[in-house]
Amino acid sequence: MRRFICSILLALPFVLEASFQVLIPVSYYGWLDQYSMDSGHSFVGNEACVPTSSVNSFTYLQSSSPSIFGTGLSGTSYSNWEDTDDAMISIMGTTTPDGTYYYQFVWTYNMYMALTKNHPEVQFSGMFPDSIWDASLGYPKPDYITSGKPTAQFLTNLLASGSVALTSIEYTGGGGHELLVNGLEWDPTTNTGTLYFVDPLDPSQNYSGSTVLGPVKQTSGTLQLNGDGNLLLTYDQYSGRLPYTGTYDSVSAELVGLLSVGGFFYNTSYIGNANAQAIVEGVRHLDPTTSSITPILAVLNTVADAESAFLELDPSLYNALLFTDQNVSREMQTAINGSLRRYRYCCTAPGCCRNLWITPLELWLHQDSIDRASYSNRIDGGIIGYDMRLTNNCIGGAAFSYAHTKISWKNTPASAHLNSYGLSLYAAKYCHRLSFDTSLTGFFNHASGSRTVYIPSALPFIAPIDTTITHKNCSNTLQGHVGAIYDLCHWNVCRSTVNIWPFINLDYTYVNLSSFRERDGGDLDLEVDSKNTGLIRSELGLGSTWFLPCYLSFEALLSYVNESRFAGKGTDGHFASTPSSAFTVFGLLPQNNLVSTTLALATTALADRCSAQLTYRGEFGADFAANQISAQLSCCF
């Protein structure tokens, strides 16, 4: 037996430009002989090709997906197979001399799987001519059947997905037969090839009289297009009954029908994860005969495997891009807030009315979640600002900021890099003990990233999906801020002055994430629609400044922070190759309650008009942690 490696690339349309081949190991199939039905059973062995091939296909399903079907479809012994064949003969209405009608075969196979064996999750597909259906008898054409006779491309892609392929043939001289196909070689340049199958007339390698011993036998025949453009099969067919005599005749037959069974978890009622359900609905719109996604999904063994596989395609992780934009904007705002708080302390020299300052900073942040949405940020950047006194108690200024952020996802192999460019306008007014500040900041962000999609194969002859998908996108951020500080009291302690001041901050951050298309993943590429989100961040806290000897000051802040996000939880997308495959998934939208602390040490010893400060800021919540280190150099003139 020649063995070929089955690749899901066989499902791509362009493979028709060259020869292609696919072969499922025949050992997965049953070897029930249809003439076994003539000995103490239904006595219709000569007509039992359809129910017998169906039983042999049940054995394949049990072998390839044991965690789904167990042994309940056809059993584990030859006598079990015979009993199952008796049941199928009755269900399919197989008789002598009529055999089995196509429409009864398709509908009753489906009913047996869905109702008798309680497997409604099984998905069917196939090709049959419209002329075979009889709606007046209650057998209309099912939606999953494609009109027409089988093609090499259709058959190859079903085999590449690991699906059952039951093929109906009609002899050139009349009559028909049913084969269980397990492989195909095809050369589209000559329109010829080889078909591999299990023939219920001759399914076993060994016989002892009328006893069928097994193991399963693979038969092959030549395949070509006939004058009508249909597939014509020629092979040496066993012509006897049992006991086995080994006599063969050459026959030619046209492939007229094909029934496929696979895609066991495309039924969303069997998947508990809502995002996986949504992606299933998107996958439903893909053509299983041309898509490279569907073969690997068709042979998933367990519900857990199915959920995991579909979640590999889940774009909800991109919500972290929105939150990272917000994080960058927030960090730059804290630098401005710090400068405004210290303005009255760093510009005390006579004649000072302008201030130039620069703040480099670094932040490590982690947002946890119970799903794949957990992410981390590392932000490296800085901000440079210039402000001036507009009046004796009012200042205004502008700042430019840049940040580079690395985004890493905790539970999935994905990462991204974000470059952010921001411009801020700010002002503050000092009224004796009470001061107010406000700012408006805009950011342009450019992100590039990648995610690895890995879906293991449940069958050894189907290659797993293992690919890295890239993306680039842009976003815009607009943040407004208002804040107030009240100098509650101060007193002198051991040559030091201590100030106590409660404060309040209120920020609103709006982010617009542009639509983008993934690259390098072939059929796995998604197009993700644009989306917006908003964040209201309120902070209430208490601060203290200690003015120490030797030109030193120490600042400590402790506050409660509430972050309320709205909009942006849902992500709309579709497979790039199929716009009709649209789906919506829902990702992380954290509503954080945080404790924030800031510790800063400053000195004015550098020069009369300059000050420097080193600051640590931390924010902590049940699912959130952030640590920032920054330095600031200010020069008044």
Protein architecture, described:
This protein has 637 residues and is of the alpha+beta class. It folds into two domains: 13-264, Alpha-Beta Complex (Cathepsin B, Chain A), CATH 3.90.70; 315-636, Lipocalin (Beta Barrel). It is built from nine helices and 28 strands. The N and C termini lie far apart (89 Å).
Structure in a nutshell:
It is built from nine helices and 28 strands.
Task: Describe how the helices and strands are arranged.
Blueprint (H helix, E strand, L loop, with lengths): L19 E4 L25 H16 L1 H4 L8 H15 L9 H15 L6 E6 L16 E3 L4 H9 L3 E8 L4 E12 L4 E7 L8 E2 L2 E2 L6 E7 L5 E8 L9 E15 L11 H11 L9 H4 L5 H9 L7 H28 L7 E14 L7 E17 L2 E16 L4 E18 L2 E22 L9 E22 L2 E5 L2 E18 L2 E2 L8 E3 L2 E18 L3 E15 L3 E6 L7 E4 L5 E16 L2 E11 L3 E13 L1
Parallel strand pairs: 2-3
Antiparallel strand pairs: 1-5, 2-11, 4-5, 4-11, 5-6, 6-9, 7-8, 9-10, 10-11, 12-13, 12-28, 13-14, 14-15, 15-16, 16-17, 17-19, 18-19, 19-22, 20-21, 21-24, 22-23, 23-26, 24-25, 26-27, 27-28
Helix pairs in contact: 1-3, 6-8
How many strands in all? 28
Could you tell me the strand content as a percent range? over 45%
Q: Look at the helices and sheets and give the structural class.
A: alpha+beta
Compute the separation of the termini in Å.
89 Å
